[in-house]
């Protein structure tokens, strides 16, 4: 497979290497769960007063699950990972991407 024309082969990172993320950065989380209301309450609890955007994504074909897209300015990797873990550990959430 050829590298994209705007990138040189030496610019590409091996699959096991962390991406170079420069902080602060706006990070997106897709949160999937059975209740939009419960996910919204959880996000409010996790992000507190931090400025964020939370938009409805998709609903599963059977209507069992809904996804919400959270965009949040994270100051560092520790915060980015903490938010992910707090969302993922909740019973209100089925999956976080």
Could you explain how this protein is built, in words?
The protein is an alpha+beta fold and 97 residues long. Helix content is 25%, strand content 29%. The chain has helices at residues 36-47, 77-88, and strands spanning 25-33, 52-59, 66-74, 95-96. A four-stranded antiparallel β-sheet has the order 2-3-1-4, covered by helices on one side. The protein is globular and about 40 Å long. The model has no long low-confidence stretch (mean pLDDT 89).
Secondary structure topology:
Blueprint: E1 25-33, H1 36-47, E2 52-59, E3 66-74, H2 77-88, E4 95-96
Antiparallel strand pairs: 1-3, 1-4, 2-3
Biggest sheet layout = 4 strands, antiparallel
With strands numbered from the N-terminus, the spatial order across the biggest sheet is 2-3-1-4
Q: How much strand?
A: 25-35%
How many helices? The count is 2
> What gyration radius follows from the Cα positions, in whole Å?
16 Å
Structural class, judged by helices and strands?
alpha+beta
Average of pLDDT: 89
What's the N-to-C terminus distance?
A: 27 Å
- Overall 3D form: globular
Runs in which pLDDT lies below 50 for 5 or more consecutive residues are none
H and E order? EHEEHE
> Roughly what percent helix?
10-25%
- Would you count the extended β strands for me? 4
């Amino acid at each position: 497979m050829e590298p994209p024309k705007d990138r040189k082969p030496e610019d590409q990172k091996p699959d096991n290497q962390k991406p170079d993320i420069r902080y602060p950065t706006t990070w997106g989380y897709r949160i999937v769960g059975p209740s939009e209301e419960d996910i919204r309450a959880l996000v409010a609890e996790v992000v507190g007063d931090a400025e964020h955007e939370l938009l409805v994504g998709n609903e599963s074909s059977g209507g069992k699950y809904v996804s919400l897209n959270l965009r949040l300015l994270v100051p560092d990797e520790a915060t980015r990972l903490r938010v992910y873990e707090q969302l993922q550990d909740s019973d209100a959430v089925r999956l976080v991407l």
